[in-house]
């Protein structure tokens, strides 16, 4: 049985028993269930609910029915990406949202470039979309936002968003909504999310070892290592060490050193995420409190990133005319890791010394280079790709 209230909110309905439960609902308000318990008159005052895209679409300056909305809007429910071990929420959107282009990153914690339907900037100085978090324009890095704190992301992709945010929306708008306490009466709920993943490249270019390097280098320097009219005879007087730039490298070659520069600069990468939150709602208080930690160890040693996240979203009803609320977060990111260049692993000979005779670390990149064009040197120091 259904009944519709008139303009003054009055209604009348026949019920089968005194224990019947009435369900009161209206678009934009919280649904309430009331048991009759033998009463003949029941007055209900509905509370405004959080804006739900199931009934309406938030368009910045108000709401509209989905059927009436003419602009291009894409909505991403972050719940479906909760099992992905991503440092940034924007990484989860790569390849799943039409019209949204997310660039690649080269180190942990880096904020990727974002494009919505291309670039619409004449100068090209600012081609990033406008970011709006819980109704406020956000100028910070998306990497600072904890992905587990985000409930949904709405993307305004066409020119109609300029009617809301002006010229700032020329490259599109991303509306980010964080989690709140809940709808209706919700008991305190504690939630923990954790993950630990390891990462390895799908293919590797590994430098040659000493024996391979020495034999192939003879072919590269064939004018010195070969003799005869057809240059196919080995030169018995050829000495490879004549091309070396220091006595340390000559000594390392004579001692048969085989330093694994590649193995010394790389490792198995790892990514761990931990997040704990408590949320709930009563008649007078709606709250969501969370804390999180993210630790990333990149494939190259010392390419590290750490992040600590804290968030408080709360709304309190003080009396009939006063409500107080707070939506805040604090992020501490550690970018102190200085990533070395893996090019050194290909530009150093395997018998180049790592330490001086006194035990001091020594990286003689210039001395270790052979006097041949650099592109040839790379060819002779690379093996064929290996697949894990």
From TrEMBL:
UniProt KW keywords: Cell outer membrane, Membrane, Receptor, Transmembrane, Transmembrane beta strand, Transport
According to the entry, every stretch annotated as the TonB-dependent receptor plug domain falls at 66-173
Q: Does the keyword Transferase apply?
A: no
Q: Which InterPro entries match?
A: CarboxyPept-like_regulatory (IPR008969), Plug_dom (IPR012910), Plug_dom_sf (IPR037066), TonB-dep_OMP_SusC/RagA_CS (IPR023997), TonB-dep_rcpt-like (IPR039426)
Membrane topology reported for the UniProt record: Multi-pass membrane protein
UniProt entry tagged with the keyword Acetylation: no
Subcellular location(s) per record: Cell outer membrane
Task: Indicate the family of this protein.
Answer: Belongs to the TonB-dependent receptor family.
Could you identify this protein by its name? TonB-dependent receptor plug domain-containing protein
Native species: Niabella ginsengisoli
Q: What is the lineage of its organism?
A: Bacteria, Pseudomonadati, Bacteroidota, Chitinophagia, Chitinophagales
């Amino acid at each position: 049985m259904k009944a519709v209230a008139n303009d003054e909110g009055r209604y009348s309905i026949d019920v089968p028993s005194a224990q019947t439960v009435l369900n009161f609902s209206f678009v934009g308000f919280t649904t309430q269930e009331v048991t009759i318990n033998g009463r003949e008159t029941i007055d209900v005052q509905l509370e405004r609910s959080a804006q739900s895209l199931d009934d309406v679409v938030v368009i910045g300056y108000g709401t509209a029915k989905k059927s009436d909305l003419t602009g291009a809007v894409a909505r991403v429910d972050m719940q479906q990406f909760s099992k992905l071990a991503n440092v940034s929420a924007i990484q989860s959107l790569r390849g799943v949202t039409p019209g949204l282009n997310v660039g690649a990153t080269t180190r942990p914690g880096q904020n990727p470039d974002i494009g919505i339907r291309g670039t619409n900037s004449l100068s090209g100085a600012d081609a990033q979309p406008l970011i709006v978090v819980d109704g406020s324009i956000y100028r910070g890095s998306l990497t600072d936002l904890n992905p587990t704190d985000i409930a949904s992301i709405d993307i305004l992709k066409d020119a109609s968003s300029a009617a809301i945010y002006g010229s700032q929306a020329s490259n599109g708008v991303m509306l980010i909504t964080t989690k709140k306490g809940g709808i209706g009466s919700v008991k305190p709920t504690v939630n923990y999310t954790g993950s630990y993943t390891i990462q390895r490249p799908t293919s590797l270019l590994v430098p040659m070892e000493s024996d391979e390097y020495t034999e192939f280098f003879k072919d590269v320097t064939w004018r010195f290592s070969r003799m005869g009219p057809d240059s196919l005879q080995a030169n018995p007087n050829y000495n490879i060490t004549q091309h070396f730039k220091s006595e340390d490298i000559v000594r390392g070659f004579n001692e048969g050193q085989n330093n694994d520069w590649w193995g010394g600069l790389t490792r198995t990468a790892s990514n761990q995420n931990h997040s704990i939150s408590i949320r709930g709602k009563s008649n007078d208080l709606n709250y969501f409190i969370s804390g999180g930690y993210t630790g990333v160890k990149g494939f190259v040693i010392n390419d590290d990133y750490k992040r600590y996240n804290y968030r408080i979203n709360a709304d309190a009803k003080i009396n009939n005319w006063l409500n107080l609320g707070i939506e805040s977060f604090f992020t501490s990111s550690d970018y102190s890791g200085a990533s070395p260049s893996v090019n050194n692993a290909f530009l150093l000979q395997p018998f180049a010394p790592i330490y001086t005779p006194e035990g001091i670390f020594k990286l003689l990149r210039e001395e270790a280079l052979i006097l041949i064009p650099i592109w040839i040197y790379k060819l002779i120091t690379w093996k064929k790709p290996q697949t894990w």
